[in-house]
Description:
The protein is an alpha/beta fold. It has ten helices and twelve strands.
Amino acid sequence: MRRVNFDLDVLRSFVTGMDLGSYARAAERLGRSTSAVSAQMKKLEEQAGTAIFRKSGRNLALTDAGQTMLSYARRLLDLNDEAATALHGADLEGWVRLGLQEDFGEALLPAILGQFARAHPKVRIEARVGRNADLIERIEKGQIDLALTWGQPGMDRASAPYITRIAEVPMCWITAARSDRGDFLTPDDVGARQMNLGDDPLPLVAFEPPCLLRDCATTALDRAGVAWRMAFVSPSLGGLWAATAAGLGVMVRTPIGLPGNLRVFDGGLPALPSLDLNLLGSESEPSDIVRRLADILMASVRDAMPGYLERLHAA
């Protein structure tokens, strides 16, 4: 089989076009003509040996092979950029302070720290896993440099000089995935046996206040006229996961970081809004060190997001 060496410039145009939703905008961003970018996409299909794009109305969409190509293209470009940064940024020295939600701590933190440490071995990084309100307060006080947080009402650049919206993530109702017998529960089982829907108040599992997701859950239930009671309160996400898995109640969270013994529940409870996932910085003009960590963090979250959302769509 003939080996194919994909052109990184072509892959960068491909990924940029998909991110911007237009290859005309990609051409402008990359300083190329639209015809040059079109030629690159034709070259990509020739190198791939299969169709990458398909017609979707007036727009181009990706084939299954195109989706696979996009995933690999991102990884190839990330590795290329990491190598370039390691060679040209190895002399960076100093320290950077990062804050993350518990949802991301186990799933993303090791990869982010590892990638950053390999690229910048002389930079010391301090990481804090905490709750949303605590991280935002620390950004406001300049106690950490970057924080991955949920969007709060009224958040503006007066409290966080640097704000980048990474994604919009749906909130959802979470319940146990298995019964005491170990078999998977159906939505009817959950409703009848675990959630006590009917005349009894809905048992909720939630963080201690203040908590943005707790407020959203109770507001949605109040507006829908659904009675509820607080069945379990904890200061830690691990405690909430355990209580929900034990069937003490339902909780509101996003699909991010959801353990295997829990599931998204879609059984007639009130609809919930989505949350903005933001990257906050304590300085309006981040240093080179902070900017590089921000780039790695945003790329990691965006790469992981499709996998998180699959669990929501499978509910």
